[in-house]
Protein backbone atom coordinates (compact mmCIF):
# COMPACT_ATOMS: atom_id res chain seq x y z
CA UNK A 1 0.00 0.00 0.00
CA UNK A 2 3.04 2.27 0.07
CA UNK A 3 3.90 4.46 -2.88
CA UNK A 4 6.95 3.35 -4.88
CA UNK A 5 7.05 5.98 -7.66
CA UNK A 6 5.64 9.47 -7.48
CA UNK A 7 4.97 12.24 -9.97
CA UNK A 8 6.32 15.80 -9.50
CA UNK A 9 2.90 16.86 -8.22
CA UNK A 10 2.85 13.99 -5.77
CA UNK A 11 6.39 14.81 -4.66
CA UNK A 12 5.33 18.36 -3.90
CA UNK A 13 2.47 17.03 -1.78
CA UNK A 14 4.81 14.67 0.08
CA UNK A 15 7.23 17.51 0.74
CA UNK A 16 4.38 19.69 2.00
CA UNK A 17 3.32 16.96 4.41
CA UNK A 18 6.93 16.51 5.54
CA UNK A 19 7.35 20.24 6.19
CA UNK A 20 4.09 20.30 8.12
CA UNK A 21 5.17 17.30 10.18
CA UNK A 22 8.54 18.89 10.88
CA UNK A 23 7.03 22.22 11.94
CA UNK A 24 4.36 20.61 14.10
CA UNK A 25 6.83 18.22 15.71
CA UNK A 26 9.25 21.08 16.34
CA UNK A 27 6.49 23.00 18.11
CA UNK A 28 5.46 19.97 20.14
CA UNK A 29 9.02 19.21 21.21
CA UNK A 30 9.75 22.88 21.86
CA UNK A 31 7.03 22.75 24.49
CA UNK A 32 8.07 19.37 25.84
CA UNK A 33 11.84 19.98 25.96
CA UNK A 34 11.33 23.46 27.37
CA UNK A 35 9.69 21.89 30.40
CA UNK A 36 12.57 19.46 30.81
CA UNK A 37 15.17 22.20 30.71
CA UNK A 38 13.17 24.46 33.02
CA UNK A 39 12.70 21.61 35.49
CA UNK A 40 16.47 21.61 35.98
CA UNK A 41 16.99 25.36 36.50
CA UNK A 42 13.64 27.05 37.23
CA UNK A 43 10.92 24.84 38.72
CA UNK A 44 13.21 23.54 41.46
CA UNK A 45 13.33 27.03 42.94
CA UNK A 46 9.87 28.37 42.12
CA UNK A 47 7.34 25.55 42.45
CA UNK A 48 8.68 23.42 45.30
CA UNK A 49 9.90 24.03 48.87
CA UNK A 50 13.53 25.14 48.55
CA UNK A 51 14.78 24.17 52.02
CA UNK A 52 16.74 21.25 50.55
CA UNK A 53 17.89 21.80 46.97
CA UNK A 54 18.51 18.06 46.37
CA UNK A 55 14.95 17.19 47.44
CA UNK A 56 13.51 20.05 45.42
CA UNK A 57 15.41 18.80 42.37
CA UNK A 58 13.98 15.31 42.84
CA UNK A 59 10.45 16.74 43.11
CA UNK A 60 10.96 18.83 40.00
CA UNK A 61 12.21 15.82 38.06
CA UNK A 62 9.22 13.85 39.40
CA UNK A 63 6.77 16.23 37.69
CA UNK A 64 8.94 15.92 34.59
CA UNK A 65 8.53 12.13 34.80
CA UNK A 66 4.75 12.46 35.15
CA UNK A 67 4.54 13.68 31.58
CA UNK A 68 6.07 10.43 30.39
CA UNK A 69 3.64 8.34 32.43
CA UNK A 70 0.81 10.15 30.67
CA UNK A 71 2.23 9.54 27.20
CA UNK A 72 0.81 6.01 26.76
CA UNK A 73 -2.62 7.46 27.56
CA UNK A 74 -2.16 9.93 24.75
CA UNK A 75 -0.91 7.15 22.49
CA UNK A 76 -4.11 5.19 23.12
CA UNK A 77 -6.39 8.20 22.65
CA UNK A 78 -4.81 9.72 19.57
CA UNK A 79 -3.79 6.34 18.14
CA UNK A 80 -7.45 5.28 18.24
CA UNK A 81 -8.50 8.54 16.58
CA UNK A 82 -5.77 8.18 13.96
CA UNK A 83 -6.66 4.60 13.05
CA UNK A 84 -10.44 5.11 13.20
CA UNK A 85 -11.14 8.70 12.11
CA UNK A 86 -7.95 9.80 10.39
CA UNK A 87 -4.28 10.61 10.88
CA UNK A 88 -4.85 14.31 10.21
CA UNK A 89 -7.54 14.73 12.87
CA UNK A 90 -5.29 13.13 15.48
CA UNK A 91 -2.25 15.32 14.84
CA UNK A 92 -4.38 18.50 14.87
CA UNK A 93 -5.83 17.51 18.24
CA UNK A 94 -2.48 16.65 19.78
CA UNK A 95 -0.80 19.87 18.74
CA UNK A 96 -3.67 21.93 20.16
CA UNK A 97 -3.50 20.26 23.56
CA UNK A 98 0.27 20.73 23.75
CA UNK A 99 0.22 24.41 22.82
CA UNK A 100 -2.47 25.32 25.31
CA UNK A 101 -0.99 23.41 28.26
CA UNK A 102 2.50 24.84 27.68
CA UNK A 103 1.28 28.41 27.33
CA UNK A 104 -0.69 28.10 30.56
CA UNK A 105 2.48 27.02 32.42
CA UNK A 106 3.86 30.46 31.60
CA UNK A 107 0.96 32.02 33.51
CA UNK A 108 1.00 29.84 36.64
CA UNK A 109 1.56 31.43 40.09
CA UNK A 110 4.54 30.07 42.04
CA UNK A 111 4.87 28.18 45.35
CA UNK A 112 5.52 31.44 47.16
CA UNK A 113 2.17 32.79 45.97
CA UNK A 114 -0.20 29.83 46.42
CA UNK A 115 1.84 27.10 48.12
CA UNK A 116 1.43 23.48 47.12
CA UNK A 117 -1.35 24.38 44.66
CA UNK A 118 1.37 25.74 42.37
CA UNK A 119 3.04 22.34 42.19
CA UNK A 120 -0.33 20.63 41.59
CA UNK A 121 -1.20 23.00 38.74
CA UNK A 122 2.25 22.47 37.22
CA UNK A 123 1.79 18.71 37.46
CA UNK A 124 -1.62 18.92 35.75
CA UNK A 125 -0.24 20.89 32.82
CA UNK A 126 2.65 18.43 32.56
CA UNK A 127 0.16 15.55 32.36
CA UNK A 128 -1.62 17.29 29.49
CA UNK A 129 1.73 17.77 27.78
CA UNK A 130 2.38 14.06 28.16
CA UNK A 131 -0.99 13.07 26.71
CA UNK A 132 -0.35 15.30 23.73
CA UNK A 133 3.20 14.07 23.14
CA UNK A 134 1.95 10.49 23.30
CA UNK A 135 -0.12 11.02 20.18
CA UNK A 136 1.98 13.55 18.30
CA UNK A 137 5.08 11.64 17.26
CA UNK A 138 3.33 8.55 15.92
CA UNK A 139 0.79 10.61 14.02
CA UNK A 140 3.30 12.92 12.37
CA UNK A 141 5.51 9.99 11.41
CA UNK A 142 2.70 7.83 10.02
CA UNK A 143 1.28 10.74 8.04
CA UNK A 144 4.64 11.42 6.38
CA UNK A 145 5.61 7.83 5.67
CA UNK A 146 2.20 6.90 4.25
CA UNK A 147 2.65 9.71 1.73
CA UNK A 148 6.31 8.93 1.01
CA UNK A 149 7.78 6.48 -1.54
CA UNK A 150 8.98 3.31 0.13
CA UNK A 151 12.48 3.63 -1.27
CA UNK A 152 13.01 6.94 0.54
CA UNK A 153 11.32 6.30 3.85
CA UNK A 154 14.62 6.55 5.73
CA UNK A 155 15.23 10.17 4.80
CA UNK A 156 11.55 11.12 5.02
CA UNK A 157 11.33 9.58 8.49
CA UNK A 158 14.27 11.79 9.47
CA UNK A 159 12.46 15.01 8.55
CA UNK A 160 9.97 14.98 11.48
CA UNK A 161 12.89 13.92 13.73
CA UNK A 162 14.61 17.19 12.88
CA UNK A 163 11.87 18.83 14.91
CA UNK A 164 13.51 17.62 18.13
CA UNK A 165 16.95 19.29 17.75
CA UNK A 166 15.37 22.39 16.24
CA UNK A 167 13.05 22.47 19.25
CA UNK A 168 16.08 22.11 21.50
CA UNK A 169 17.67 25.09 19.76
CA UNK A 170 14.50 27.15 20.13
CA UNK A 171 13.61 26.18 23.71
CA UNK A 172 17.14 26.16 25.12
CA UNK A 173 17.99 29.25 23.11
CA UNK A 174 14.98 31.08 24.50
CA UNK A 175 15.92 30.11 28.05
CA UNK A 176 19.56 31.04 27.40
CA UNK A 177 18.54 34.51 26.28
CA UNK A 178 16.24 35.20 29.22
CA UNK A 179 18.72 33.64 31.66
CA UNK A 180 21.09 36.52 30.92
CA UNK A 181 18.68 38.69 32.88
CA UNK A 182 19.55 39.41 36.52
CA UNK A 183 18.38 36.52 38.71
CA UNK A 184 15.59 38.58 40.25
CA UNK A 185 14.10 39.40 36.84
CA UNK A 186 14.71 35.92 35.43
CA UNK A 187 12.97 34.11 38.29
CA UNK A 188 10.09 36.59 38.56
CA UNK A 189 9.05 36.97 34.92
CA UNK A 190 11.84 36.20 32.45
CA UNK A 191 11.43 32.42 32.54
CA UNK A 192 7.76 32.78 31.57
CA UNK A 193 8.46 34.26 28.12
CA UNK A 194 9.59 31.00 26.42
CA UNK A 195 6.43 29.27 27.68
CA UNK A 196 4.12 32.03 26.49
CA UNK A 197 5.64 31.73 23.01
CA UNK A 198 3.77 28.43 22.77
CA UNK A 199 0.59 30.36 21.87
CA UNK A 200 1.86 31.92 18.60
CA UNK A 201 3.69 28.69 17.77
CA UNK A 202 0.39 26.86 18.13
CA UNK A 203 -1.26 29.15 15.60
CA UNK A 204 1.50 28.45 13.08
CA UNK A 205 1.35 24.71 13.68
CA UNK A 206 -2.41 24.56 13.20
CA UNK A 207 -2.21 26.56 9.99
CA UNK A 208 0.34 24.14 8.51
CA UNK A 209 -1.49 21.00 9.58
CA UNK A 210 -4.85 22.10 8.25
CA UNK A 211 -3.24 22.50 4.81
CA UNK A 212 -2.13 18.88 4.42
CA UNK A 213 -4.24 16.09 2.97
CA UNK A 214 -5.21 12.91 4.74
CA UNK A 215 -2.91 9.91 4.31
CA UNK A 216 -3.66 8.10 1.01
CA UNK A 217 -3.15 4.80 2.83
CA UNK A 218 -5.85 5.67 5.37
CA UNK A 219 -8.17 6.82 2.59
CA UNK A 220 -7.73 3.42 0.97
CA UNK A 221 -8.47 1.66 4.25
CA UNK A 222 -11.69 3.66 4.53
CA UNK A 223 -12.72 2.97 0.95
CA UNK A 224 -12.18 -0.78 1.43
CA UNK A 225 -13.92 -0.66 4.83
CA UNK A 226 -10.83 -2.14 6.49
CA UNK A 227 -10.75 0.30 9.40
CA UNK A 228 -10.32 -1.72 12.62
CA UNK A 229 -12.89 -1.19 15.37
CA UNK A 230 -10.43 -1.29 18.31
CA UNK A 231 -6.97 -0.86 16.74
CA UNK A 232 -4.86 -1.31 19.86
CA UNK A 233 -6.41 -4.71 20.64
CA UNK A 234 -5.63 -5.92 17.13
CA UNK A 235 -2.12 -4.51 17.35
CA UNK A 236 -1.35 -6.27 20.62
CA UNK A 237 -2.93 -9.52 19.48
CA UNK A 238 -1.09 -9.75 16.18
CA UNK A 239 2.10 -7.77 16.74
CA UNK A 240 2.67 -7.64 20.50
CA UNK A 241 6.20 -9.00 20.21
CA UNK A 242 7.09 -6.48 17.53
CA UNK A 243 5.72 -3.66 19.67
CA UNK A 244 8.16 -4.66 22.41
CA UNK A 245 11.09 -4.80 19.99
CA UNK A 246 10.12 -1.44 18.49
CA UNK A 247 9.88 0.20 21.90
CA UNK A 248 13.31 -1.15 22.83
CA UNK A 249 14.79 0.14 19.57
CA UNK A 250 13.33 3.61 20.21
CA UNK A 251 14.42 3.82 23.85
CA UNK A 252 17.78 5.55 23.44
CA UNK A 253 16.70 8.32 21.09
CA UNK A 254 13.47 9.03 22.91
CA UNK A 255 14.68 8.61 26.49
CA UNK A 256 18.48 8.62 26.78
CA UNK A 257 18.34 12.16 25.43
CA UNK A 258 17.08 13.39 28.79
CA UNK A 259 20.15 12.08 30.63
CA UNK A 260 22.45 14.08 28.37
CA UNK A 261 20.28 17.21 28.54
CA UNK A 262 17.87 17.53 31.48
CA UNK A 263 20.02 15.69 34.02
CA UNK A 264 23.33 16.90 32.63
CA UNK A 265 22.31 20.55 32.91
CA UNK A 266 21.32 20.09 36.55
CA UNK A 267 24.47 18.05 37.26
CA UNK A 268 26.78 20.56 35.61
CA UNK A 269 25.31 23.59 37.38
CA UNK A 270 24.66 22.17 40.85
CA UNK A 271 27.47 19.62 41.20
CA UNK A 272 30.31 20.88 39.03
CA UNK A 273 29.77 24.61 39.30
CA UNK A 274 29.37 25.43 35.61
CA UNK A 275 27.48 28.60 34.77
CA UNK A 276 23.86 28.10 33.74
CA UNK A 277 24.55 29.69 30.34
CA UNK A 278 27.50 27.34 29.80
CA UNK A 279 25.40 24.20 30.09
CA UNK A 280 22.58 25.65 28.01
CA UNK A 281 25.02 26.72 25.30
CA UNK A 282 26.57 23.24 25.26
CA UNK A 283 23.11 21.80 24.67
CA UNK A 284 22.63 24.19 21.76
CA UNK A 285 25.85 22.97 20.15
CA UNK A 286 24.67 19.42 20.74
CA UNK A 287 21.41 20.17 18.93
CA UNK A 288 23.35 21.37 15.88
CA UNK A 289 25.24 18.07 15.87
CA UNK A 290 21.91 16.25 16.10
CA UNK A 291 20.60 17.94 12.96
CA UNK A 292 23.59 16.71 10.96
CA UNK A 293 23.40 13.20 12.41
CA UNK A 294 19.66 12.86 11.73
CA UNK A 295 20.08 13.73 8.05
CA UNK A 296 23.05 11.38 7.62
CA UNK A 297 21.45 8.48 9.49
CA UNK A 298 18.24 8.85 7.48
CA UNK A 299 20.14 8.68 4.19
CA UNK A 300 22.22 5.72 5.33
CA UNK A 301 19.05 3.92 6.44
CA UNK A 302 17.72 4.09 2.87
CA UNK A 303 20.88 2.32 1.72
CA UNK A 304 21.45 -0.39 4.33
CA UNK A 305 18.21 -0.57 6.35
CA UNK A 306 16.88 1.36 9.33
CA UNK A 307 17.38 -1.52 11.78
CA UNK A 308 21.10 -1.70 11.03
CA UNK A 309 21.56 2.03 11.63
CA UNK A 310 19.62 1.85 14.91
CA UNK A 311 21.62 -1.14 16.14
CA UNK A 312 24.94 0.51 15.26
CA UNK A 313 23.85 3.72 16.99
CA UNK A 314 23.01 1.83 20.17
CA UNK A 315 26.43 0.18 20.24
CA UNK A 316 28.31 3.42 19.56
CA UNK A 317 26.38 5.26 22.27
CA UNK A 318 27.09 2.51 24.80
CA UNK A 319 30.82 2.73 24.12
CA UNK A 320 30.83 6.53 24.41
CA UNK A 321 28.60 6.88 27.50
CA UNK A 322 31.37 6.96 30.14
CA UNK A 323 33.73 9.16 28.06
CA UNK A 324 30.92 11.71 27.74
CA UNK A 325 30.74 12.06 31.51
CA UNK A 326 34.52 12.05 31.88
CA UNK A 327 34.71 15.06 29.58
CA UNK A 328 32.03 16.94 31.50
CA UNK A 329 33.70 16.06 34.82
CA UNK A 330 36.94 17.81 33.80
CA UNK A 331 35.47 21.17 34.77
CA UNK A 332 36.76 22.57 31.48
CA UNK A 333 34.07 24.43 29.53
CA UNK A 334 35.37 23.41 26.09
CA UNK A 335 35.77 19.74 27.00
CA UNK A 336 32.37 19.66 28.69
CA UNK A 337 30.76 21.15 25.59
CA UNK A 338 32.49 18.54 23.41
CA UNK A 339 31.27 15.81 25.76
CA UNK A 340 27.67 16.91 25.51
CA UNK A 341 27.96 17.25 21.74
CA UNK A 342 29.31 13.70 21.49
CA UNK A 343 26.61 12.37 23.81
CA UNK A 344 23.75 14.05 21.97
CA UNK A 345 25.19 13.15 18.57
CA UNK A 346 25.73 9.46 19.28
CA UNK A 347 22.28 8.82 20.73
CA UNK A 348 20.78 10.56 17.70
CA UNK A 349 22.12 7.91 15.29
CA UNK A 350 19.20 5.53 16.01
CA UNK A 351 16.78 8.41 16.49
CA UNK A 352 16.95 9.57 12.86
CA UNK A 353 15.52 6.46 11.13
CA UNK A 354 13.49 5.02 14.03
CA UNK A 355 10.23 6.10 12.42
CA UNK A 356 11.04 4.09 9.31
CA UNK A 357 11.92 1.06 11.44
CA UNK A 358 8.70 1.21 13.46
CA UNK A 359 6.45 1.96 10.52
CA UNK A 360 7.78 -1.08 8.69
CA UNK A 361 6.93 -3.36 11.61
CA UNK A 362 3.14 -2.90 11.52
CA UNK A 363 0.25 -3.22 9.03
CA UNK A 364 -1.45 0.03 8.07
CA UNK A 365 -4.82 -0.75 9.69
CA UNK A 366 -3.42 -0.36 13.21
CA UNK A 367 -0.03 1.21 12.47
CA UNK A 368 -0.69 4.51 14.31
CA UNK A 369 -1.78 2.77 17.52
CA UNK A 370 1.00 0.18 17.43
CA UNK A 371 3.74 2.76 16.77
CA UNK A 372 2.47 5.27 19.31
CA UNK A 373 1.92 2.78 22.12
CA UNK A 374 5.18 0.88 21.67
CA UNK A 375 7.17 4.12 21.46
CA UNK A 376 5.50 5.74 24.44
CA UNK A 377 5.17 2.78 26.80
CA UNK A 378 8.93 2.41 26.66
CA UNK A 379 9.14 6.20 26.71
CA UNK A 380 7.90 6.10 30.32
CA UNK A 381 11.42 5.02 31.21
CA UNK A 382 12.74 8.28 29.81
CA UNK A 383 10.67 10.31 32.21
CA UNK A 384 12.29 8.61 35.16
CA UNK A 385 15.85 8.71 33.86
CA UNK A 386 16.64 12.21 35.26
CA UNK A 387 15.27 11.33 38.71
CA UNK A 388 16.95 7.92 38.55
CA UNK A 389 20.19 9.58 37.50
CA UNK A 390 19.94 12.02 40.40
CA UNK A 391 19.32 9.14 42.81
CA UNK A 392 22.29 7.19 41.44
CA UNK A 393 24.43 10.30 41.74
CA UNK A 394 23.54 10.64 45.41
CA UNK A 395 24.05 6.91 46.04
CA UNK A 396 27.54 6.96 44.48
CA UNK A 397 28.76 9.91 46.50
CA UNK A 398 28.18 12.41 43.68
CA UNK A 399 30.30 10.40 41.23
CA UNK A 400 29.11 10.30 37.63
CA UNK A 401 30.18 6.78 36.61
CA UNK A 402 26.88 5.27 37.77
CA UNK A 403 24.88 7.58 35.51
CA UNK A 404 27.27 6.85 32.65
CA UNK A 405 26.63 3.13 33.07
CA UNK A 406 22.90 3.81 33.12
CA UNK A 407 23.17 5.60 29.78
CA UNK A 408 25.22 2.71 28.37
CA UNK A 409 22.55 0.25 29.52
CA UNK A 410 19.81 2.22 27.78
CA UNK A 411 21.91 2.24 24.60
CA UNK A 412 22.40 -1.54 24.68
CA UNK A 413 18.65 -2.07 25.05
CA UNK A 414 18.17 -0.06 21.85
CA UNK A 415 20.79 -2.17 20.07
CA UNK A 416 19.07 -5.43 21.08
CA UNK A 417 15.63 -4.11 20.07
CA UNK A 418 16.89 -3.00 16.65
CA UNK A 419 18.56 -6.34 16.01
CA UNK A 420 15.33 -8.12 16.92
CA UNK A 421 13.25 -5.84 14.71
CA UNK A 422 15.55 -6.59 11.78
CA UNK A 423 15.63 -10.35 12.31
CA UNK A 424 14.71 -12.69 9.46
CA UNK A 425 11.66 -13.95 11.31
CA UNK A 426 10.17 -10.47 11.66
CA UNK A 427 10.98 -9.54 8.08
CA UNK A 428 9.39 -12.74 6.73
CA UNK A 429 6.26 -12.12 8.77
CA UNK A 430 5.92 -8.57 7.42
CA UNK A 431 6.40 -9.77 3.85
CA UNK A 432 3.61 -12.30 4.38
CA UNK A 433 1.31 -9.62 5.85
CA UNK A 434 1.98 -7.28 2.93
CA UNK A 435 1.25 -10.07 0.44
CA UNK A 436 -2.00 -10.97 2.21
CA UNK A 437 -3.04 -7.32 2.30
CA UNK A 438 -2.27 -6.85 -1.41
CA UNK A 439 -4.21 -9.99 -2.31
CA UNK A 440 -7.25 -8.81 -0.34
CA UNK A 441 -7.21 -5.44 -2.06
CA UNK A 442 -6.91 -7.10 -5.49
CA UNK A 443 -9.85 -9.39 -4.71
CA UNK A 444 -12.05 -6.47 -3.66
CA UNK A 445 -11.11 -4.26 -6.60
Structure report:
The protein has one domain: MFS general substrate transporter like domains (Growth Hormone, Chain: A, Up-down Bundle). The chain is globular. The chain has helices at residues 8-41, 43-46, 53-84, 87-105, 111-114, 116-145, 153-161, 163-178, 183-190, 192-196, 198-210, 216-223, 231-270, 276-304, 306-329, 333-348, 354-359, 367-395, 401-421, 424-444. The protein is mainly α. The chain has 20 helices and no strands.
Task: Describe, in short, the structure shown.
With 445 residues, this protein is an all-alpha fold. It is 83% helix and 0% strand.
Topology:
Elements: H1 8-41, H2 43-46, H3 53-84, H4 87-105, H5 111-114, H6 116-145, H7 153-161, H8 163-178, H9 183-190, H10 192-196, H11 198-210, H12 216-223, H13 231-270, H14 276-304, H15 306-329, H16 333-348, H17 354-359, H18 367-395, H19 401-421, H20 424-444
Helix pairs in contact: 1-3, 1-4, 1-6, 1-7, 1-8, 1-11, 1-13, 3-4, 3-6, 3-18, 4-6, 4-11, 6-7, 6-18, 7-14, 8-14, 13-14, 13-15, 13-16, 13-18, 13-19, 14-15, 14-16, 15-16, 15-19, 18-19
Low-confidence spans: none
Radius of gyration: 21 Å
Number of strands: 0
Q: What profile does the largest beta sheet have?
A: none
- Listing every helix as H and every strand as E from the N terminus to the C terminus, the arrangement reads HHHHHHHHHHHHHHHHHHHH
Question: What is the highest CATH level, the class?
Answer: Mainly Alpha
Q: How many domains comprise the coordinates?
A: 1
